[in-house]
Amino acid sequence: MDSNQKASGDGLVGTQKEAALRTLVQRTGYQLIQENGQRRYGGPPPGWDGPPPERGSEIFVGKLPRDLFEDELVPLCEKFGKLYEVRMMMDFNGNNRGYAFVTFSNKQEAKAAMKQLNNYEIRNGRLLGVCASVDNCRLFVGGIPKTKKHEEILTEMRKVTDGVVDVIVYPSAADKSKNRGFAFVEYESHRAAAMARRKLLPGRIQLWGHPIAVDWAEPEVEVDEDTMATVKILYVRNLMLQTTEETIEKEFNSIKPGAVERVKKIRDYAFVHFSQREDAINARNALNGKVVDGSPIEVTLAKPVDKDSYVRYTRGTGGRGGSVLQTDYTTYSLGQVVYDPTAAYLGAPVFYAPQAYAAIPGQFRFPAAKIHTGGRGLIRTPSVRGEEEQDVLFTSSVYRTGSNHLIT
């Protein structure tokens, strides 16, 4: 098929709703091309001059009716800004696979669309699930000997894969001299991470003579800057198991007596509530890295996420991820605020191990799925709750390049 045929929409011959799709491309002048299991509208659009839109300009649109196509989705999304590209995942039978990626000309338009379209009733009783789509540059690697240190793991990963930027390793709650048996490996690009994942698939490579489990790490929900600017709660990780809430409160009140409202400790991490945000910021700056009961603590702002958004990530159906968490972590409530330690457990970042890791016998077994990503390592929402919920969840900070995050 030559470029003229593609531009005229001749690739639509025999597709469902062919007439409606032809009308769409004639109206907008965008190309509509099907390739590699997806149908791409635009990318770039007619008259686009310059590089692709900035990071954060793409959204994930899930829970699409399987017989809904670009002739319905494009006019809906156009209300929020200029579309750069729409990629709809397609099945062999001609239906969509229930989700698409929509890229706007800038991240402000994407943010507005995400806000307005999440839980939008696209058809009678059918609510869309919409969230940010972010390229994933991190892999989960399980099966690492617990005696290995950060530098050893970093060196080993650089031996077997290219483009490694860093590794994220968490100390054991019971023994700070050991790791938890897994690490998150950050690569210089999504492509580098994808190539490494393919190379490291189970059975192909062992680390220190140990079989490993490898898949995409799955980042938590993002929180906007306006919301983060109101946070008055600190997340403290890498605590000793024997460190008490009283000890934590004393340490944080030492910066300004009486500033701490309350402390909630769960195993090796805690949430410290302050009356004033300024006091929380000052305490974070002063105490991050301080040694408490023999362990250097890490202090970050807790990150608030509304319960509805959180549930979409942790209670979705068909997910590919199983959380790397102990089973004795429980939630607790304070008024309308719900704290979920399973979301906070890993600290910064909050990541979930893939299903492959949960499926490995013995010491590699973990709980069931939480959230899932797709082939490009993009955040995806497997299900959406339609009702409004005002509860807020608090969790740890989520690691992303250049920023700290947490769910509250």
TrEMBL record:
Classification via InterPro entries: HnRNP_R/Q_splicing_fac (IPR006535), Nucleotide-bd_a/b_plait_sf (IPR012677), RBD_domain_sf (IPR035979), RRM_dom (IPR000504)
GO cellular component terms attached to this protein's record: cytoplasm
Alphabetical UniProt keywords: Cytoplasm, Repeat, RNA-binding
Primary residence: cytoplasm
Region (Disordered): 35-56
NCBIfam families given in the database record: hnRNP-R-Q
Protein name as it appears in the record: APOBEC1 complementation factor isoform X1
Native source organism of the sequence: Austrofundulus limnaeus (Annual killifish)
